[in-house]
Amino acid sequence: MRINLARLKLRPQQSEKFYLEEQGNNVYLQGTGCTFLDKIAVELQVENTGRMFLARGNIKTVLGLPCSRCLRDTSTAIDTDIELTMARAGLAGKPDADDETIIFHGDMVDLSIPVHEAVFMAIPIIPLCRPECKGLCPVCGKDLNQGTCSCSQKEIDPRWEKLKNL
Length: 166
Ligand SMILES: [Zn+2]
Ligand SMILES: [Zn+2]
Prior knowledge:
Elements: E1 2-4, H1 6-9, E2 15-23, E3 35-36, E4 39-48, E5 53-66, E6 73-88, E7 102-104, E8 108-110, H2 112-121, H3 158-164
Parallel strand pairs: 6-7
Antiparallel strand pairs: 1-8, 2-4, 3-5, 4-5, 5-6
The chain binds zinc ion (2 copies).
C-alpha cells in the first residue's frame, strides 16, 4: 500500500489526492478475532508543507468478527479517519518531526502499517450482530435469538441485566 510523492515533492505548498485500494492483511489483526472481509479503501489528501508531507483522509473496509453476545460471525463496516506526517530521509530530525513521522527514501512511501493500525484502532469494543441481539443463555448457552430455553423462564435480577450486556 504505497503512494508516490514524486510529483508532489516538486510542488511545495500544494496538495494532491491519493486513492489506494488493497486487500487487508489479517496478520495485523492477530489476537482480535477479526478478519478482513473486503479490501481496504483509503482516500488521502496529502499536502506538501515544504519540509513535511501532511496526509489527512479516510479509511473504509469491512471486518468479520464474532458478536460479543451470541458469538455468531458478524460483519462490521469500518469507516475511520487517518492523519499522517511523512518526511524525506535527511530532512528528519527537524524540530517539527516527531516519533510519529514516517521517514521515507526516494518517492514511494509505504503506508501499510499506519493504515492497518488505524483499522485496528477502529475495531468496535463490543461488536454486535444487531443492536437487539439477545445473546446466549448464561446457564445453558442456548442462542436466545432462536427462542427461549427452560432456564430463561426464571426471573433475572434486573441489576444483572446490565452486566450481561457488557
Ligand atoms: Zn449476536
Ligand atoms: Zn438456558
